[in-house]
Amino acid sequence: MTVEEFEEFYARTVARLTGQLFVMLGDLHEAQDVVQEAFVRAWSRRRQLDREGRPEAWIRTVAWRLAVSRWRGVRRTADAWRRSGVPPHAEAPGPESVALVEMLRALPLKQRRTLALYYVCDLTVEQIAAETGLAPTTVKTHLVRGRATLSHRLQDPRTEEGPRA
Known about the structure:
By secondary structure, the protein is mostly helical.
C-alpha cells in the first residue's frame, strides 16, 4: 500500500472503525484512542496489510486487543491498590512549591532535570552524569546556570524594596 493509498484507506474507514469499536467498547474516547493507535501501528505494516487483503479487519482486531490490554492494566492497577491499601494522605503543595515549579518550568529541560536530580533526588554530579549521559562538567554547567537563573527569579520582593521613608 502506497502512502496515498494508506491515506485514502484511513479517510475511508476511520469513522466506520471508530463507530464499530464504540459499539464494542461503549466508550467513544476509548474507541477513538485505540483506533488511532491501531492506525499508527498499521502505518509501518502498510505493505504487509495490502498483501493480506484485509486491512480493515486487521485495524479492528488490533484496536480491540489494545482496548483489552488497557482493561487488564487498569484491573491490575486496581488490584494492586486494593492489596496495598489506601495511600497515605499527601498534603497539597504550598504556594512556595507551586511558585518554584513554575520557575523551574521556565528553565531549559536539561537544566530543570539536572536541578531536580541534584536537589530533589539528592544525586551527586557523577551520579547525574551517569544517569543522563552528560559529562560531569556539563552537569556542573547546568547546575550553575540553573541556579543563576532561579536566583534572579526568586528574589524576595521585601528585600528589593529598600528602606521605607
